[in-house]
Design a protein that fits this description.
CATH architecture of the largest domain: 3-Layer(aba) Sandwich
CATH topology of the largest domain: Rossmann fold
Number of strands: 5
Shape: elongated
Distance between the termini: 54 Å
Number of helices: 9
Radius of gyration: 20 Å
CATH class of the largest domain: Alpha Beta
Strand order of the largest sheet: 2-3-4-1-5
Largest sheet: 5 strands, parallel
Order of helices and strands: HHEHEEHEHEHHHH
Low-confidence stretches: 1-13
Helix content: 40-55%
Length: 239
């Protein structure tokens, strides 16, 4: 096995988060909902191409990319996920060569390779060829597309074919409750409206913080074999 083929297989060994699913993602923006619908129709060539999810930490960028990989895997389609910011992975630009034959390629933390000519050329080539093949490339990062520090003409010309999808934190209380309840169902238990409201009032409107609390409560519920009632939740959080 040569070095390049070994590197291509690395993302396949990266475990997807258990909660990474389209079912557990709640979006207030209509554009995001439409994009997710398009991504779940891999047989429709009109939805092929490159999508770029961007926004601050905690808005669900990695969640969406891993959810897409999970969806494609469940449909028996090929997908790969590269966490480009992970410096422990010996990734080189050549890892993108030939991936246009893959149904879905997800690149998380795109800032890590911008400004690198070899990476930019490989990315531009991947985007162009994937669309011809009827496949999809998903990118995630923090900065708007217009602010990318592009160094090469190859990527500069291809960037116009990328669909930017801005992500924002969930601020609506009802959307937060829905997200919490979806995550609970995904974990195998029900979260009542009463408990969800209590958690939001007790802690914050930050979904990631609330999900951390939810994980603690789930572990306590399993250990003590008790249902997730409001008295139980108050008891656990008071310890």
């Amino acid at each position: 096995m040569n070095e390049q083929s070994m590197l291509v297989q690395l993302p396949l060994k990266i475990s997807l988060r258990n909660d990474a699913s389209f079912k557990t993602f709640v979006a207030e923006q209509e554009l995001i909902a439409q994009t997710l619908s398009n991504l779940q129709q891999p047989d429709k060539p009109q939805y092929a191409g490159c999508y770029y999810f961007y926004g601050p930490d905690g808005v669900g960028k990695t969640h969406l990319l891993q959810a897409a990989c999970r969806f494609y895997s469940e449909k028996m389609l090929q997908s790969v996920f590269f966490p480009l910011m992970d410096q422990s992975l010996p990734l080189i630009a050549d890892v993108l060569v030939g991936l246009e034959v893959t149904d879905l390629v997800c690149l998380d933390g795109i800032e890590a390779i911008l400004g690198e000519p070899a990476w930019e050329k490989a990315l531009a080539n991947l985007i162009a060829k994937s669309k011809v093949q009827g496949h999809r490339v998903l990118l995630a990062g923090q900065m708007p597309l217009a602010d990318w520090p592009i160094e090469t003409d190859a990527l500069r010309s291809e960037v116009f074919s990328i669909m930017p999808i801005p992500l924002a934190p969930i601020n609506d209380r009802d959307s937060l409750i829905l997200a919490l309840q979806r995550h609970a169902v995904n974990r195998g238990f029900e979260l009542s409206l009463e408990v969800a409201n209590f958690l939001i009032k007790r802690f914050s409107l930050d979904l990631q913080e609330l999900l951390t609390v939810l994980q603690v409560l789930e572990q306590a519920s399993l250990a003590e074999k008790r249902r997730m009632t409001l008295p139980f939740v108050k008891d656990v959080l008071a310890r």
